[in-house]
Amino acid sequence: MAKNVLLRDQAYQLIMEKIISSDYKMGTYLDEKTISNEIGINRTPVREALIKIEHIGLVEIMPQKGIFVCQIGYKDVYDHYSVRLFMEPHLITMWGEKLSPEKLNNFRQAFVVYQHQTSEMDLYELDNAFHRYILSLSDNKYLESVVTALEIDFIRMRIISHVNQKSSISVCLKHIDIIDALLNKDYKSARLLLEKHILESREENIAAFIKALK
Asked: What tens-digit pLDDT sequence spans the chain (214 residues)?
């Protein structure tokens, strides 16, 4: 049992990487046997991994038709960033005092390092981790389901972001500016910088989405 779980998790990671990197493009038919041969893991763990991936909305298992990588629509991209635009600046204004200076400094240092070095660190994951930290500020139980949905959607948006090759220096500098404002407890400036960043990300990723369709 433990071995099967390990193989399933390995298959999950490998398939996710192929979806996120667009090796398996949106709308692609996924054949269990082909995937099994590609990643060197037998079909049962592959099937279990695909079922797990279906639960987060990245593939669709259609009876009598097969398994397909889900399409992400223009409205999905727009809605994802619009919800974040509504929530994240508000959370900073309401609960910015709860942010840990130590954690903020750790994020700041990570963005500084990534800005100046070629590293295996995934900038997108760092970006997401920072925004997840802001979203975690809410202690409102009614917002928990929204935050959970956004957590899943961060993965889906990564597919679009992979197409949108943004300057790592630009991304890092924007986050450093936001973090500096938070460390200085200048929540008004932090809110304005965050709103600008999310708006720009929405427009950039919508443009990347349109480009990917051509």
From this structure: 556 678 999 999 899 888 877 788 888 999 999 999 999 999 999 999 999 999 878 899 998 899 999 887 788 888 889 999 999 999 999 999 999 999 999 999 999 988 876 554 477 778 888 998 998 888 777 777 777 777 767 777 766 665 555 567 888 999 999 999 999 999 999 999 999 999 998 888 888 777 766 6
Residues 116, 64 within the same domain: no
CA distance 177 to 190: 8
The residues, any chain, with a CB within 8 Å of residue 163's CB and separated by 6 or more, are 22, 208, 209, 211, 212
Q: Which residues pair with 61 in a beta bridge?
A: 67
48 shares its domain with 96: no
Residue 122 to residue 106: CA distance in whole angstroms:
16
Q: Are 138 and 95 in contact (CB under 8 A)?
A: yes
Sheet holding 29-30, edge to edge: 29-30, 66-69, 59-62
Whichever domain contains 154, its CATH number is 1.20.120.530
Q: Which domain holds residue 14?
A: 2-69
